[in-house]
Amino acid sequence: MPEKLSPQKVKFLDIHRVFPPQEACFVCRHCYGKRSSDAIHWHDFHELVVVENGEGEHILRDGNYRIYPGDAFLIKTGEPHGYTNMRNLTLLNFCYRPHFLGAMLDELSLTPGYRHFFEMDPQLAADHRFQNRRNLSPKTLRSVQTYAWEMLDEQKQQANGYRFMLKLTLMKILCIIGRTFESQSSDASAIREITQLISYMNQHYAKPLTLADLANYCHKSPRGLLRLFHATIHQSPISYLLDIRLTKAAAELRSTQDAISKIAVHCGFRDSNYFSKLFLRQFGTCPRTYRRHHQTSSGRISF
Fold this sequence. Notes:
about 300 residues, alpha+beta, Jelly Rolls, Arc Repressor Mutant, subunit A, 2 domains, 7-stranded mixed sheet, 12 helices
């Protein structure tokens, strides 16, 4: 029976010892060997995963999906995931914090391939993402592997300018991945509409948005938007909006000293009790306990 993801099983993956919060990027190579499963976890950075060898199942919030050599996928900050039913699985994990990559990433983000793979694809329901996936060609996979070894060597040697070299090499990898996924799937129009709406939600999540507001933004009827959203995301638009608000709130709990009630309002919740109830359901712990476990700064925090 496939392993399922539940809030109570999700753990924070703390690799701050090797990838401190002030660093931009880090690469590691995981060889799972005979291990059959990996702990379900989340982390405070983006992770580009490239499958080198073997196979397994990737556990995501909405299901388990087979992965094979040449597969590449992005796990964003705060997204819970894990692996199971692994057979000699080897992964290249490119970890990075987008806000530290500056103008280089800003320029790359304007390209169609980057928008498709790094912005559109992670928003989709997992079956939608994996159903029409495209593998890296053997030649492209070898290029990514070569750059990964260069990054690993820079991390080990730490010669002058190694941080710059890490960022530069990572940007080459992101560009290669973007070029590979330049062409979009046959349902690109629907995906583009959904992505534009999700972008709007991410910009205006603090506002009291209703289903009618979201449908009006897309120039659709509420019923039509519900059908489209369920077909692509497997959630209702309002449920997805709540997920965005909770993710933003979790980030503020980790990084600020603001009162929990203030964070709730700032993230679009008018009732802090309702916010705490939803947060517990999503993360398996209350906001106060979550903050105590994950905040690195000290100081007195009021509710």
